[in-house]
Design a protein that fits this description.
159 residues; mainly beta; eight-stranded antiparallel sheet; three-stranded antiparallel sheet; 2 helices; 13% helix
Amino acid sequence: MNIIKNFIDDEIKFKEMQNLLISADFPWYYQNTVSSPTDKSGFYFTHNLFIDNKSTTYFNSVASPILGRLKFNHLIRIRANCYTNNGFAQTHGWHVDGHENHKVAILGINDCNGYTEFKNYDKFLSKENEIILFEGCEQHRSCTQTDTNLRININVNYI
C-alpha cells in the first residue's frame, strides 16, 4: 500500500481534469450496484475511460496525466467514479476489482469525508490529487460522503 500526495505534479493539468469531471458537461452513467451485481448497498455513476483495450473520448483529458506517472506494462481498465451525497454515509460491499493478478490506483479528484476502506488496513479519506496504490487482491469498499455533493475518483487497474 502506497499513498502519494500531489500525484499529478502539474497543478494546471490536475485542475483542468478536476474542472472537467465536476462540470455539467461530463457524461456520467448510472450503475445500480457498486461492488457486485448482487450488492444492493447503493448506486453510483461511472464513465469508462479505457476498457476492452479501447480508450474513449475523454481518455486523453482524464487518464493521460495519471498514466504519465504510473509504471505499468498493460492497462486493464480505467474508470471515473462519481458518488452522490445521499444524506448519510453509505458503505458499500467488500470486493476486488478483478481476479487476475493486477494492481490498482485510486486517485482522489476532490476532498470530502467519503473514503475507501481496506479489509487488512485502514480507511483513507478522499483527498484531492492523492493516489492510493495497492495490490488488486486487497479487498476494499467505498463509502459515500456527507460533506460535499459529489465524491469523484479515478480507478486504474493495471499490470
